[in-house]
Amino acid sequence: MQKLGLVGFGGIVALVLVGFGLWATGLGPEMERVMRWGSDSEAEEIYTVRGRLVEAASDGTELVVEHEAVPGFMVAMTMPFTPENPEAVPALERGDALTFQYHVGTDRAWITDIERLPDDAVAAVPAADRMKRATAPPDLDRLEEGDAVPPLSLLNQDGESITLHDYDGQALVVNFIFTRCPDPTFCPRMSRHFQTLQDELMPKQADTAHLLSITIDPEHDRPDVLRDYAARYTTDLDTWTFATGTPEAIARAGRLFGVFYEYGEGQINHTLATALIAPDGTLHTVWRGNRWTPSDVQQALASLTQEDG
Predict the structure, then answer these.
(1) Measuring CA to CA, how many Å separate 114 from each of 93, 109, 243, 277?
(2) What's the rounded Cα separation, in Å, for the pair 227 and 281?
(3) Partners of 275 in the beta sheet?
(4) Domains plus CATH for the chain?
(5) Who's near 41: CB < 8 A, 6+ residues apart?
């Protein structure tokens, strides 16, 4: 097996697309967890995770792990984890069995107590039963930058019919979320980023830009649910719209923007994408995953304005 001390990190993105899985229902009685308060008075839930190492950053700041199901929280999948102390990460090789404690706080998540396990302690392919897709491959109809974005029929948080073409003439920033998402680094982070964008952008660009959050859980996230969710982040639904639709419409939206998701056992396993659609209705920029920042979007909007000028 290859030592990971100096492994390049550029290829991790493709591996991560196997799934950013998220738990989507109420806490089950079978869940094994610990609740405690950290030194900064932040509530933490702590889960034990077991799996196999797929890849690691050379400086130990991120581990990509194919892990077993975490009862009541996550399905088996492949996803990145952030060690609290990179210097405490033990020497590991690709494919090593390992375990660690996964801390989920209010707005961040991290891992501690990383230990190598005997090889027979973890299945050879921990997420084998999740290697199937409930939606079409995300590249089937996926748009490329510069492509015209087709109309999508959706419902907003007030139950009104909308399409993406309703925002022609404005820059439209689109993300994908679901209201029961529990991991603070996934959907809640995307919504907090949109909250920041609305606070910083809309006082000056209310007529030239708009935010749109599309749920990937249309069976649960009906308009009234989205309206309640929206209230957690904004009181201004004139510049930030929350949308749902038929399962077919949501699946098409996912394919167009390269978002993969699947359902199983009350959970949703999905990837993240945030897109900027230009005022002329073409796809300008797509940010994959959860590492983009509001400033990235603001810079892209500024460049879009310069291009139009």
Answers:
(1) 13, 15, 40, 42
(2) 26
(3) 174, 286
(4) 12-130 (2.40.50.320), 153-308 (3.40.30.10)
(5) none
Parallel, antiparallel or unpaired: strands 43-56 and 63-67: antiparallel
Compare 180 and 237 and report the one with higher pLDDT.
237
Whether the pTM exceeds 0.85: the reply is no
User: How many whole angstroms separate alpha carbon 134 and alpha carbon 262?
Assistant: 5
Q: Tell me which range, 70-74, 79-83, 84-88, 264-268, is most confidently predicted by mean pLDDT.
A: 84-88
- Strand blocks (E) in the chain: 20-23, 34-37, 43-56, 63-67, 77-81, 97-104, 109-116, 153-156, 161-163, 171-177, 209-215, 240-244, 261-264, 267-270, 273-277, 283-288
The residue written with tokens 């799934």 in the block is 19
Structure tokens at 215: 């749920």
Question: What pLDDT digit, counting tens, does each position of 143-160 carry?
Answer: 999 999 998 999 999 999
Question: pLDDT per residue over 280-308, tens digit each?
Answer: 999 999 998 888 999 999 999 998 877 76
Residue whose entry in the numeric block shows the structure tokens 């030194």: 39
What residues contact residue 140 under an 8 Å CB cut-off, 6+ apart? 255
H or E segment at 86? Answer: none
> Which residues sit opposite 56 in a β-bridge?
63
Name which of 205, 108, 92 is nearest 100 in CA terms: 92
For residue 270, what are the β-bridge partners?
20, 261
In the 8-state DSSP scheme, what is residue 87?
A: G
